[in-house]
Amino acid sequence: MSDPATGLNGDAPQLTHFRDGQPRMVDVSAKAPSTRTARAEAWVFLPPESRAALLAGQTPKGDPLGVARLAGLVGSKRTADLIFLCHPIPVTGAEVDVSLADAGIHITATVRTTAPTGVEMEALTAVTVAALNVYDMLKATSKAIEIGGVRLLSKTGGKSGDYQAPESLPRP
């Protein structure tokens, strides 16, 4: 029988963000800390004029790739401030790679922790914040810049086990 005061069903926590129809933060205090890693990606698709400005080093606000790297790192550490009901966790390591590709700018983030809950949201937030910063840095070159392809690539550790994304997902 479930205990509404603790959210526990026997010894297993109820991992839901709702109780009695109301939002709540899941209690992960009974979960043991473990090493967890998550990787995510995002794409910033550039129209020709934005790509040309970037390649020529003529971006009005400076280096969008460098700013995006730093913004992604900060975003990974501020996830609990941005995502409702997300646990604040100690990010023990984070890497953000921002590179120019034929389709635009490819952003990846790898985030690590030793905590009772995972870092998927931190990795996804890192790439999203980095992509938004690229848009901000390049929007003077074109408003037609698109952000997309945000997805979890992999995760290791934790009770739910490991995950590896398929090479590519079918697109609508």
TrEMBL record:
Family: Belongs to the MoaC family.
Gene behind the chain: moaC
Reaction(s) catalysed by this chain's protein: (8S)-3',8-cyclo-7,8-dihydroguanosine 5'-triphosphate = cyclic pyranopterin phosphate + diphosphate
NCBIfam families referenced in this protein's UniProt entry, alphabetically: moaC, PRK09364.1
Domain Molybdopterin cofactor biosynthesis C (MoaC): 25-158
Protein name, as recorded: Cyclic pyranopterin monophosphate synthase
A GO biological process held by the record: Mo-molybdopterin cofactor biosynthetic process
Role, per record: Catalyzes the conversion of (8S)-3',8-cyclo-7,8-dihydroguanosine 5'-triphosphate to cyclic pyranopterin monophosphate (cPMP).
UniProt lineage: Bacteria, Thermotogati, Deinococcota, Deinococci, Deinococcales
Segments for region (Disordered): 1-22
Record InterPro entries: MoaC, MoaC_bact/euk, MoaC_sf, MoCo_biosynth_MoaA/MoaC, Mopterin_CF_biosynth-C_dom
Keywords: Lyase, Molybdenum cofactor biosynthesis
Residues binding substrate: L85, C86, H87, M121, E122
Known EC number: 4.6.1.17
